[in-house]
């Protein structure tokens, strides 16, 4: 790719990231990730239970459905409810480092670079602890963290365990907030009621 185009795209991506999150000084932490990560077992539906606040995610009932498309890549379908409407986006996840398959990259547009999506820990059936960090010349870094569940909510003890995993890896999750997973069927139900009354 043309160097200038590449630079322009990086700059746009960078500004988008910086705008969304508070930067921290220094390079990204190097957390440990899920050993022997099995992408296939990670597929399916995950709900966002808690996260570090990010400006580009304002909706509620955020969930992601991963579908294996080939060995080492997956279709990513995320949805949220924003202002009473279900919004969906599609992207691609790839294993970026064959030696460490828990280090995925996700891109929601072919013009954007893959952003890191690292599975720090998962049991595949209840909980996934996910981290994303981008650094800028190791001068500062911007990060995102999510606690995902196979159910819309997780027991408090499980959330504490997930937070401990972040903290053991020197990731600050003091600003982590619970994601709203309430009334997620309402929009759909209302529409169904409305239609059946016609
Ligand atoms: C997830 O995607 C697969 C493949 O497209 C589909 O069969 C399945 O119904 C989806 N699950 C949910 C909960 O959307």
From TrEMBL:
Alphabetized, the UniProt keywords read:
Glycoprotein, Lipid-binding, Pyrrolidone carboxylic acid, Secreted, Signal, Transport
Record keyword DNA repair present = no
Where does this protein reside within or beyond the cell? Secreted
Biological processes, Gene Ontology terms? brain development; lipid metabolic process; lipid transport; response to reactive oxygen species; tissue regeneration
Q: Which GO terms describe its cellular component?
A: cytoplasm; extracellular region
**Signal peptide range in chain numbering:** 1-20
InterPro entries of this UniProt entry? ApoD_vertbrte (IPR026222), ApolipopD (IPR002969), Calycin (IPR012674), Lipocalin_ApoD (IPR022271), Lipocalin_CS (IPR022272), Lipocln_cytosolic_FA-bd_dom (IPR000566)
Annotated transmembrane regions: none
Q: Does the keyword ATP-binding apply?
A: no
Q: What are the Lipocalin/cytosolic fatty-acid binding domain coordinates in residue numbering?
A: 44-181
Q: Name one GO molecular function term.
A: lipid binding
Report the family membership.
Belongs to the calycin superfamily. Lipocalin family.
Question: What's this protein's name?
Answer: Apolipoprotein D
* Organism, as annotated: Ictalurus punctatus (Channel catfish)
